[in-house]
Amino acid sequence: MKHRWKEFTLALLMAVTLWYAVSGSEKVESLIEVRVDYRGLPNGLTVQSGLVNKINVRVRAPIGMLRSLTMQDSRPYIMDLSSVTKGENLMLIDGSQLSFRSNIEVIDITPSRILLQVDAVSSKEVPLEADIRGNLPEDYIAQVSFTPQSVTITGPSSVLESINTLTLPITLPEPVSTGITRLTQRLPLPESVDASPTEFSLGVHVGIKRKLVSVTRLVQVEAPDGFGKFVRPDRIKIQIAVPESQAGKASADKEIRAFVNVDQAELGSYSLPVLVDLPQGMELVRIDPPNVTVTLEQKR
After folding, report:
1. How far apart are CA 83 and CA 92, in angstroms?
2. Hey, how many other C-beta atoms are within 10 angstroms of the C-beta on 93?
3. How far apart are CA 144 and CA 173, in angstroms?
4. Which distant-in-sequence residues (6+ apart) come within 8 Å of 16 by Cβ?
C-alpha cells in the first residue's frame, strides 16, 4: 500500500511538472505599452506637433515569458531625431530597436510611424499692452505702465510671426479709486513660447478724464466794513480742468468763484492775488490776470 502511495505521488508531481513545461512553452500574443523617449534634436529646431508618449506593441512569446515581461516595465523605445529638418518629418518606428529578448517576436506596432512638424526656433522683442477690465465710474480713466515695457520671446518661428504684442488682462479692484496701484505679475504665454523676463512689475494709474474750460468771473472783494471798494479789472478769466461730464455746465456753475482778501483797514490801493474756489473734482490751471488792484475809498 505504501508503495502505491509513493508511486501515485511521484506520478502526480511528474504530471504537474509536464503541464507547466507544456503550458509555459505555449506561444501566445499580448499587447504591451512601451514608453517613447526622444534624443538628438538639432540645436535651433523644435518639434511643434506629432510627438507620442507611448506605443502599443503586439508580441508573440511563450506564455511564461510574457507573464514575467508584463510584470515589469519594459525599456523605453529611443527615437533618434538627429536627422529631422524644418517642416514635416515622417519617422518610422523600427521594431528591431525594441529592447525585447530574442525569443519574443514583434507582430505589430501602433502607431508604426509618426509625422513630426518641426520648426526653427527664433526670438523677437515685443511690447506689453493692457486689457483693462472692470467698471470705471463716469469720467474715470485707467492706464497701465509696465517695467520693463517689452519682453523678448523665444519659440517656433511660425508662432512668433503672429505675435506683435503681448496683451495682459488687468482687473481693476473694487471699489475703483484714483491713485496708483503697484503689482507684480507673470506673463501669460502661448504654449511653446518662453519669455525673458517672465515676471515684471506694473502700475495701474486711475485718474479722472478732464477737459480744459475757460470761464469769466466777477472778482468779489472781502474787505473790512466801512470802506468803499473799487476793483480793476473787475472781471478775470479762469482756466480750469473739469470732469468731462461737467464741461458743458461750468460756465453757469455758481460754485466757481473768484475773490480777493483785503486785510488792511486803511484807505489806499492794493495789488492783490486773485483766489479761486472750485467744486470738488475741478483743478485750477490758470488765472488771467493773476492779480487785481483794489482801492479802498471813504464810504459814501
Report:
1. 12
2. 19
3. 14
4. none
